[in-house]
Structure formats: C-alpha cells, structure tokens
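We store chain and fold; example below:
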Amino acid sequence: MANFLTYKNEQDALDRADVEGQALNLPYWQDPINVTRTVTSPFYTSINNWVLEVTEYTTITEDEAALMIDENSITLDEAN
C-alpha cells in the first residue's frame, strides 16, 4: 500500500520531493541539465491539499512517519 504526506501548498511538497532527490543524488542534482530531479511529484486533491507519494523515500523522519496517510485516505481532484 502506498503512503503519502499531505501539504497545504504545492511548493512545500515540491521542496520535500527535492530533499529525497538530492539524497539519492538523482541526475538533476549532479548536473541541472539532466531532467530527473525527484522520485515522485505532488498532486492536488479534492480536499484542497497536495499529497506526495513517499512509500519508497529513504529520508522520512519520525515526525513525517507519524503524519503519513495511506492511499485509502486520499480523494483525488477529479477536475485534474
């Protein structure tokens, strides 16, 4: 089952995705010309928040682990 973190805005979710990308030394972080920057990208939900799939993230803190929700808790924004 997939796990997610929720955010009030897209930028916070993108910043968190960047942390994981840097920790994994993805190609973008070696040379910004390369395109692979993050492992996952945030998406918007119908309850006015952003979620980021973090199931395979290696940099999850204890605080983040306590805030994770599973895929059954997400209501997608059907407009997107």
